Amino acid sequence: MARIKQRTDRSGRSSERHPAPSEHRRAPRGDLLGAQRDRLRDEIGTIVREAPDAVCLLYPSPYAAGMSSLGFQTIYRTVNETPGRAAHRAFLPDDVDAWRGSRLPLLTYETEQPVGSYRVIGVSVAYELELAGLVQALELANVPVLAEDRDERHPFVLGGGPLTFSNPLPLAPFADAILMGEADETVHRALDVIFACRSKADALVALAREIPSCFVPSIHGDEMPPVARADDAILPARSQIVTPHTELRDMFLIEPERGCHRGCTYCVMRRSTNGGMRTVSMERLLELVPSHVERVGLVGAATTDHPEIAEIVESLADRGLEVGLSSLRADRLNDRLMAALARAGHRILTTASDGASQRLRDKIQRRSRSDVLVRAAELARKHGMKRMKLYMMVGLPDENDDDIDELIGFSLELSRIIPLSLGIAPFCAKRNTPLDGEPFAGIDVVEHRLDRLRRGVKGKVDLRATSARWAWIEYVLAQGGVAEGRAVIDAVHAGGRFRDWKDAFEAMPEDRPRRSIVRPGERIDRAQMQRRALPLAT
To answer: Taking the CA of residue 172 as centre, how many other CA atoms within 13 Å lie in the half-sphere pointing to its CB?
Structure first.
């Protein structure tokens, strides 16, 4: 029988992450396990369950990130709801070197059982750079990193997560099988197969045969199946556990919709993915919010496009709940929604324009006109919000300094309405988008444009940008294949610095297979597509 734990004590401990040291150090085992037990004690909704078929759900980033993943939490709940099955969680430690120095194997939270002792390890990968965390986590668990080095003595590593919507080939060297797309249902079918088969080889053949969206690298090579779409009847994904040890402290997360009906050409989750946006009714959503929570996060690719979003926020605010939203679209903001958000505790308006200029926004089909963003800033000020945060990309195809200058002028205009923060990310082309295969602008180019932007808004706009160097690493992996995945091991073992990544990529064989360009709608006929070589950007 499962035991669902309620919180009995709040320690108030900080969940800040501390940077790993450059050299391994020993840490008392009790300190490391004590921190893990403190987090477990502070959770609400933890399921403590023993069953014949136990699965380790491994997240290759620290606890704070993993517990903010709706997919990870949903799989945790539904596996535990399956008769005869249990799910136990494990995460990449906050301080990998300290854990390694303790010589403790990586342990699950619920049972403190070694991760390497489970028959199945389910891995959720959100984005490319988490592959480094996966390498570290498997090594801490004493599990061979490469699938080809594991045998019947080792766990079956089943991959999945948001990365599978774009390009999971760099994940292929590490996973025995990968569930493409929405795995809400397919994960249970896959576990049925794995636990029923007497050998790993039999399981791989059965998975490839019985689950159309299951990618088995040893059988399929680099010809990936289409992504799965979950039945709308099982939506929405939602939190099982509420914890104070995440950035979204003590917040219950739930999706009012899944997918997006818009056509932004850089985005994987666009209208061509799984039929676009699917909504959850307001009644269904409200009945799933637990009575004990005080904060609710509405999460999705296009939450403000839900036709009842204002009514949903108003209803939650009427219950005295604080409400947060992801993906606020400026063209969907109006007085009613902004008033509801303000009443529900919203203090910062966060939205995106993505292109530095109107010309670029038109090219990437981003419906964020300048006048709409100005109107959003005015609404935020009117409803007492303290700041506007605007996300955008630099390094888009055909971008030039004139586009950056337009962004400077427009940012200064917005800052005269409300204090403004810019969050800048270099553009990285992703698989399964119309911009798949577009080159990286170049580290020097991106840094030049970021410097130009900083100088133009200095002292008047807060600006934070993702490193151009780390964006290039993400780009190489996003556009890469199995060889790029293997290179992650070399980069991690060399120390994980930028130079280590660059050396690892440059050491890849010139005659390695180059993956084909895949546009939306071409997912079924991948095997017949002509290969196109993609040079590394520098």
So the answer is: 23
Q: What is the pLDDT of residue 368?
A: 85
DSSP three-state, residue 255: coil
**Residue 250 CA, distance from chain mean position:** 19
Task: Report the C-alpha gap between 482 and 514 in whole angstroms.
Answer: 9
Task: Give which of 160, 39, 165 is closest to 107, Cα–Cα.
Answer: 39
Q: Is the Cβ–Cβ distance between 397 and 435 less than 8 Å?
A: yes
Confirm if 52 and 27 have CB atoms less than 8 A apart.
no
Strand partners, 465: 424
CA distances from 121 to 3, 100, 288, 337, 402 (A): 22, 20, 29, 42, 50
Q: What contacts 531, CB < 8 A, 6 or more positions away? A: 513, 514, 515, 516
Q: Is the pTM of the predicted complex or chain greater than 0.85?
A: yes
Q: Is the pLDDT of residue 269 over 60?
A: yes
Spatial CB neighbours of 32, under 8 Å, sequence gap ≥ 6: 93, 98, 99, 102, 104
Q: Alpha helix (H) ranges present in 436-506?
A: 443-457, 468-478, 482-494, 498-506
For residue 8, pLDDT over 70 is answered with no
- Average pLDDT value for residue range 446-461: 98
Q: Is residue 481 within 8 Å of 127, Cβ to Cβ?
A: no
Burial of 46 (0-12, 13-18, 19+ CB in 10 A): buried
User: The tokens of 472 are what?
Assistant: 């290039």
Q: How far apart are CA 300 and CA 304, in angstroms?
A: 9
Q: How far apart are CA 224 and CA 163, in angstroms?
A: 13
H/E stretch holding 215 reads strand 214-215
DSSP-derived letter for residue 149 is G
**Cα separation, 33 vs 522, whole angstroms:** 48
What is the number of other CB atoms lying within 10 angstroms of the CB of residue 438?
22
- pLDDT tens for each residue of 299-310: 999 999 999 999
Top pLDDT among 538 and 272 is at 272
Residue spans of alpha helices (H) in 115-175: 130-140
Instruction: Write the pLDDT tens digit of every residue in 502-536.
Output: 999 999 988 887 766 655 555 433 322 333 334 34
Phi, psi of 489 (to 5 degrees): -60, -45
Phi and psi at 36, nearest 5°, equal: -65, -40
- Let me know: does 474 contact 492? Beta carbons within 8 Å: no
Q: Return all residues near 435 (Cβ < 8 A) that are at least 6 apart.
A: 265, 266, 364, 397, 429
